[in-house]
Design goal:
By secondary structure, this protein is an all-alpha fold. It is 80% helix and 0% strand. The protein contains six helices and no strands. Helix 2 packs antiparallel against helix 3 (49-75). The mean pLDDT is 84.
Length: 133
């Protein structure tokens, strides 16, 4: 989770001054340098061509998605974009349940509620006029 937070902060920071492709390349290079030692230590060759394809497709989709997030940060603040990222909580919870039969416990649900409520509050504050805050 700390790496994902760092990834998002780096994207927001670079998006204000850099082209989205530069932002994508920078985050990919940093992630490669940081995660390669761990990945090599834990590496297992995919057994089938389908597994290689799914792995490559996940990387491609993630890269394209990050590129578009970097584009979005050029036109909107983090407070405006944050709630759109919260849909990931729904997708991850749903996929965890459907694919891995993992039901989130109370701590996960409460944490998600706090994160989403905080983001929605910031979004609401972003759209208040200067005298209304």
């Amino acid at each position: 989770m700390p790496f994902y937070a760092l990834f998002n902060m780096m994207t927001r920071y670079l998006a204000s001054s850099e082209h989205p492709a530069t932002t994508q390349l920078t985050s990919a290079v940093v992630a490669t340098l940081v995660l390669t030692p761990v990945a090599l230590w834990q590496w297992q060759n995919p057994a089938t061509l389908l597994e290689w394809f799914v792995m490559a497709l996940a990387g491609l989709c993630g890269g394209i998605g990050h590129y578009f997030v970097a584009c979005a940060h050029r036109y909107a603040s983090a407070a405006v974009l944050g709630p759109f990222l919260y849909q990931q909580i729904i997708y991850m919870t749903l996929m965890g349940w459907l694919v891995f039969d993992q039901v989130p416990d109370l701590a996960v649900v409460l944490g998600a509620v706090v994160v989403v409520a905080s983001g929605l509050y910031l979004l609401w504050r972003e759209f208040q006029g200067p005298g209304e805050k």
